[in-house]
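Hi, here's the filled form for the chain we discussed.

Project: internal
Contact: R.S.
Residues: 290
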Amino acid sequence: MRQHLPVSERRVCAALGQHRSTQRKAPRGFDDEEALTVDIIELARQYGRYGYRKIAALLRDAGWLVNDKRVERIWRCEGLKVPAKQPKRGRLWLNDGSCIRLRPEHRDHVWSYDFVEDRTHDGRKFRTLNVIDEFTRESLAIRVARKLNSTDVIDVLSDLFILRGVPGHIRSDNGSEFIAQAVQNWIKAVGAKTAYIALGSPWENGYVESFNARFRDELLDGEVFYSLREAQVTIESWHRHYNTVRPHGSINYKPPAPKVFLPAFAAWPAAIPRPSPPATLRVAPRPTLN
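And the returned structure, exactly as it came back:
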């Protein structure tokens, strides 16, 4: 049988430091909490490598009026989390501990490019040539083929030069494809400058290395390509998503090159048919003067 203490509710709440409304009023939360939770879970399912900050940015792009803290609270309540990554490898430092970097100062100031390798389902290798603008973080091109060499580098760069003009500098690795004499002579002939990184110093090419890591983590590690053509189509779809939709942490969670408005749910890799209606601010009516 329930027994009551011989003290008033007011005195108990004062002693415990609680407001009296906590004893009578059950917390309701927001009216759109359930709809927002559904959308957060759906975005987390589509973009499994995104944290709650990127999910919050996508929600705002889709029309939700929501901040990072609210998304984080729902994120934790639903037990959502980004799967653990592989441990980072130790860096290789130069003998004198120095590292001279050419910092990008504006759009088309410094481009960088690198190769990434993967396999199709039958075990055959294919390679991608990734070119980025270091200042805007935009992915300028991703060429996919079984084999890529210095001729492909010249072909990709020449197309970009026609579309965007000649950049001030082109940064690259010191592999055989990049230090080919034909590539060096061609870059100098068109008026650009080369900026090769030191041997065994991948951090000097950190922008494209970071892009390659996102490219592998968000796409290559989670996809099975049954043919080269499938890889080309899927990678091109991700390439467009990366430039126009994907929030980028280093540029205030905005996409590198948003060209048109694309709702978050209409982006790669899939779209739900009807997203929940976004939250809206309730504006109080203005008082009328008599």
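Let me know if anything looks off before we file it.
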